[in-house]
Amino acid sequence: MQQYTQQISTNAQGRKLYDITPQVLDWANQLGFNTGLLTLYIQHTSASLLINENYDDDVLVDMEAFFKRLVPDGDDLFIHTVEGPDDMPAHVRSALTQTSLSIPILQGKLALGQWQGIFLFEHRHMPATRCIILHALGD
Amino acid sequence: MQQYTQQISTNAQGRKLYDITPQVLDWANQLGFNTGLLTLYIQHTSASLLINENYDDDVLVDMEAFFKRLVPDGDDLFIHTVEGPDDMPAHVRSALTQTSLSIPILQGKLALGQWQGIFLFEHRHMPATRCIILHALGD
Amino acid sequence: MQQYTQQISTNAQGRKLYDITPQVLDWANQLGFNTGLLTLYIQHTSASLLINENYDDDVLVDMEAFFKRLVPDGDDLFIHTVEGPDDMPAHVRSALTQTSLSIPILQGKLALGQWQGIFLFEHRHMPATRCIILHALGD
Lengths: 139, 139, 139
Description:
homotrimer, about 140 residues, alpha+beta, Jelly Rolls, 5-stranded antiparallel β-sheet, 3 helices, 8 strands
């Protein structure tokens, strides 16, 4: 069994779901693994990872709308407001979604379902460079 | 180190938590690994994975009740309603739970805690066939 | 490729986020892996894992405050109340956070981001001993 790693950097331009599927597939598909396991890890606590529907962009709008309502910016509940009204909500939204994801590789392909895409979920309003580590092992 | 993969199909009959622990254990326990790592991956965005209490069925009822209240069907917030009032709520409920899970194998056994079961969490009301990929590696 | 496992026990003294980063790093850093993957798995359904901001303790206070409001103790919604008003809320809080986490090892170090810590999120008020399994593979 072999393993490889790669770093992806995304220049997020504010709160939104960013589709990183193409970058992940480009890297995973050239590894030459027939069978394996790909792990994604995001090195942040104000941005997270999400497997989500990749067909209708309205899903991305609705997902953001739901999290905005569930974890409102400027909530009086929060005392950690040093970086602004979206600081603590970004940490909570990260906690409610994923910091790591693992996806099998089958018959030479990443085993994403037909309607699945891999997204970086940026939770801050300001632009930020986000780093995602890819780790793959397999034969 | 060796690796193996398997696909589990579950015929979900509407929104509910389905206990898939027996199928996972059956497969994992015959691999002959003393030490290893099992990863489960669900290929859907309207159904998800959950490690949950497996002793009292009331926990399953309450878990569903909580998510139903947190992410109401037919919510006016959502614009992606193409497949009905439970379409977008299913995506949100998936985002709030798990698409992948990894569980160590120790001394020849999957290291589930005493009260832990592995569940498919179906979020749509209509019947659906759901595919879960199992990947195991170990010695 | 080699693999190793380890068990961490934490004596949680009630509902709180407990920083387990030092224990995890101590173990991971002495494995001698240049490249690898560390997986953490918690064997409970009333306590969970979380990657969270590790710099300002106010984040921990706010995170707990958010979950307390989102999943109130003693909620009339719940029928599984056998162990008290925080029993079912503990299961829901676990479902909304993580049972497993995977973190790559790069250049001999666990690839945590600069502001990331690894936390045990205890959801019960009473003291409890919580077991976390560590699994690492690499070269």
